[in-house]
Amino acid sequence: MGPSTPEDPIVKALQEYTTCDVSDALCKLKFRNGGFLSGLTMWSPQRQDGPTKIVGPAYTVQYVPLSDPKPNHPTHYIDSVPEGAVVFVSCPPKTPNAAYGGLMSARAKASKAVGSIIDGRFRDLQEQRDLNYPIFARDVGTAPPAELLKVAAVNVPVKLQTDEQDMTINPGDYLIADMNGVVVLPRELVEAALPLMAKQVEADSKMAVEIQKGMSFTEASKRFR
């Protein structure tokens, strides 16, 4: 084993905030939908419960239909996951098969990835939970991907597979996920977003105290925001 990777100061800073805090800041910066990636929810280690939160740069994986002319990626994507990364697996919409399974998480965890986000279905839910490995996804399934899909590329921009939004996840963008959902924070907006998060959380904390004492939301907003 080589020397451990120094902690990313951006990851450390983002650990202090919820996905809602990140979205609030991105809304102020006029980034569409506050960076929210719709339809992706927590499945492991628990279903939409507990303190699980993952933060890290995106390592993107692009699955395409077998009919796509792009060639197969020459090596297995799971063997190149960087330490501290969030694996983001993009799967064509309306694919009934799972695009990700338990052995992938076993390898990702050994590589010190922080979690995986599957824009589609995944399988082996109990294995994922036994690994205590964070999984966010659209849904679960049973069949593996090989009869329908192939990996065309890693670390390329991928589109969120939904007709609700037009969102792109770029390699190295920061992904933050907790029980509220999944948010993408573009690298180029990090410097502007972090101070906005701190300011918003401070204001909201003060508002919460006064609202619980009986102040109206309107008055608290005027006073602290």
Automatic annotation (TrEMBL):
Family matches, as CDD domains: RraA_family
Top-level taxon in the UniProt lineage: Eukaryota
Keywords: Magnesium, Metal-binding
Names of the cofactor(s): Mg(2+)
GO molecular function, one term: metal ion binding
Keyword Protein transport part of the UniProt annotation: no
Gene3D superfamilies, per database record: Ribonuclease E inhibitor RraA/RraA-like
Annotated positions binding Mg(2+): D124
Keyword Magnesium part of the UniProt annotation: yes
Residues noted as binding substrate in the record, renumbered to the chain: G101, G102, L103, M104, R123
Name the record gives this protein: Ribonuclease E inhibitor RraA/Dimethylmenaquinone methyltransferase
Species assigned in the record: Podospora didyma
